[in-house]
Amino acid sequence: MAANGQHAELVNRLTEGIADLTSSDRWRRYLDFQSRFHRYSAGNVLLILSQRPDATRVAGFRAWQALDRSVRRGERALWILAPMVRRRCIGDPEGEARIGGFKWVPVFDVSQTEGADLPSVCRPLSGDDDGPAFERLIEIATLIGFRVEDHRFDGPTNGDCCHRRRRIRVEVARSARQRVKTLAHELAHAILHERVGDRSVAELEAESTAYVVCQHLGIDTAEYTFGYVATWAGGGAAAIAAIKASCDRIQRAADTIVGSLALRHPLDER
């Protein structure tokens, strides 16, 4: 079967896996957990990111305590604006509510807390790399003008890609197989996303590309990829529609990486 056909089959397998995941109890538990977090306004999102650009999940001090996590001693709060709701008739619980102003309130990112593990549909990959896959992907990064660096991130970040600096960073503390998957993900960003219009689409495309590339390398990333894509794209039909809309771009990025691997290592294909 031609490479394009193989990659299309893998994308179909990805959509089937996400459909199965997002009809499971694990997905419902995850959504229930997510519903306990506030949905911040666009203004507050900008405030959070200006104070902590790598913030991923934010809540107040007591909200973290309710989730069996505590803010680490010495952490600096992130400050957002919360509306002060008042009623026209004092003491009348049925009176019309209105916003009487705003006040600054402190919140904290999950990376500033410690305690019980949070529910997740992304299961980190474990185990060693069975071959020199990471080094092979570094060669591809070099071919397209990016350098790859080991890095220790503050928090759950596995990697990042900076087009301005032509640099990809990969968390050094992760398992070998997780690092291979992350590098494939960031390579997809390097190829596809110099300009990002929709972050959720970009993450879906990068992770889907990583799934195809890693399958080619003999590494099954389903335990991580299905949950990651569903988290960004939504469950069931929404995620499948989004993958289909990006299918050509996913296959193009995967063809670029896998094709380069074949050219660099013609006698070492699995």
Task: Give keywords.
270 residues, alpha+beta, 2 domains, three-stranded antiparallel sheet, three-stranded mixed sheet, 10 helices
What does this structure look like?
It is a single chain. By secondary structure, the chain is of the alpha+beta class. Helix 6 packs across helix 7 (199-216). The protein has 2 domains: 3-33 and 119-264, no CATH class; 58-115, no CATH class. The longest helix is centred in the first third of the chain and has 19 residues, at 3-21. It is globular and about 65 Å long. 49% of the residues lie in helices and 17% in strands. Strands 1-4-3 form a 3-stranded antiparallel β-sheet. It has a 3-stranded mixed β-sheet with strand order 6-8-7, with helices on one face. The protein has a two-stranded antiparallel sheet with strand order 2-5. The model has no long low-confidence stretch (mean pLDDT 85). It has helices at 3-21, 25-34, 42-51, 61-66, 133-143, 176-192, 199-216, 222-233, 236-245, 247-264, and strands at 58-59, 69-71, 78-87, 97-109, 113-115, 147-151, 159-162, 167-171. It starts with a helix and ends in a 6-residue tail after the last helix.
Radius of gyration: 21 Å
Q: Which strand-content bin applies to the residues?
A: 15-25%
Query: Helix segment count?
Result: 10
Order of helices and strands: HHHEHEEEEHEEEHHHHH
Q: Cα distance, first to last residue?
A: 14 Å
Q: In this structure, how is the largest beta sheet organized?
A: 3 strands, antiparallel
- The residue fraction in helices comes out at 40-55%
Overall number of domains: 2
**What is the approximate shape?**
globular
If you average the pLDDT, what whole number results? 85
Structural class: alpha+beta
Strand order of the largest sheet: 1-4-3
User: Which residues sit in consecutive blocks of at least 5 with pLDDT less than 50?
Assistant: none
SS elements, strand count: 8
